[in-house]
Amino acid sequence: MKICVLVKQVPDKNDKIKLNQDQISVDTQNFNFVTNESDNYAVEEALLIKEKLQGEVVICSFGKESSGQVIKDALSKGADRGILIENDTEKEYDILNVSKIFKQALSEENFDLILSGLQSDDIGNGQLGILLAEQLDTSHGSLVMETNISDNSKIKIKRELENGWFQWSELDLPASLTIQSGINKPRYASLRGIMMMKKKPIATIKLSEMNANIDKIENLKSMYIPQKTKESIKIDGTADEVADKLYDILKND
Fold first, then answer.
1. 101-119 in b/e burial notation, b at 16+ Cβ within 10 A?
2. What CA–CA distance (Å, rounded) separates 253 from 243?
3. What percent of the chain has pLDDT over 70?
4. Average pLDDT, stretch 125-132?
5. Separation between Cα atoms, residue 56 and residue 184, nearest integer Å
6. What confidence score (pLDDT) does residue 130 get?
7. Residue 52: in which H helix or E strand, if any?
8. How far apart are CA 125 and CA 44, in angstroms?
9. What does the pLDDT read at residue 217?
10. Residue 150 above 80 pLDDT?
């Protein structure tokens, strides 16, 4: 079983957001970067499948050079090797173009499974696993809460639906799965794992050297941080008048 896990480096949730002077980008100098939370569950699920069926777990990340750290963190937990697609340009790409970048880097690897977290903590569009399944022409399952593989041709998955309902589905391999947080309990890296990580290979592919057929889409005009405001309104009059005014406010405002 050959498994790829897509991981993303994101700012810590407690980091304070500050915009650059151009008002269209975020100042990242003081960010404490970590592995995207739901991607940790995808890594753990891949390791559990590997322990059950044997095989290889490959960690892949797209981002700046610093993204290599999230790959190293996953290798310390037991993954076998890493692929860093380094964005050595000054451009940012939408999720469709990011899926094309991953397709270009992974198409010749012939993975049986590609796992990704449900969504990233910074952008949160939740589309990468779906788009990559379309790009690589594989089956896809979203909101996966449990996996069960009995052979190398099919996988059974438990999907989370609305209102507390779940659905079991059987997919043909290869498949792309987006993993829901809470599917398992991610492990911590052991000291032995950290030492072994130093001997595991991480291949670096520079975006500027790829032919991924991507285009930067210019659709961002400005960014701003919402300001906290409050306003108190005093309503006078009789009970009926207050009720009428309150009804009008709740209906129209």
1. bbbbbbeeeebbbbbbbbb
2. 15
3. 99
4. 91
5. 19
6. 93
7. helix 37-53
8. 22
9. 67
10. no
Q: Report d(CA 81, CA 61) in Å as an integer.
A: 12
177 by Cβ neighbours in 10 Å (0-12 / 13-18 / 19+) ranks as buried
Q: Model pTM?
A: 0.82
> How is residue 47 written in tokens?
């390791």
Write out pLDDT tens, residues 156-206: 999 998 888 999 999 999 999 999 999 999 999 999 999 999 999 999 999
Q: In the numeric block, which tokens belong to residue 128? A: 């990468």
Residue pointed to by tokens 């449900």: 118
Rounded CA separation 92/74 (Å):
25
Residue 112 has pLDDT above 80, yes or no: yes
Per-residue pLDDT at 214: 81
Amino acid at 63: G
Query: How high is the mean pLDDT of the chain?
Result: 89
Taking only Cα atoms into account, the Rg of the chain, rounded to an integer number of angstroms, comes to: 22
Q: Estimate to the nearest angstrom the gap between the alpha carbon of 141 and the chain centroid.
A: 15
Residues in the chain: 253
State how far the Cα of 123 lies from the Cα of 221, in Å rounded to an integer. 17
Neighbours of 230 (CB within 10 A): 4
Distance CA 59, CA 72 (A): 9
Residue among 77, 87, 91, 56 at smallest CA distance from 209: 87
Whether residue 78 contacts residue 193, with contact meaning beta carbons closer than 8 Å, is answered with yes
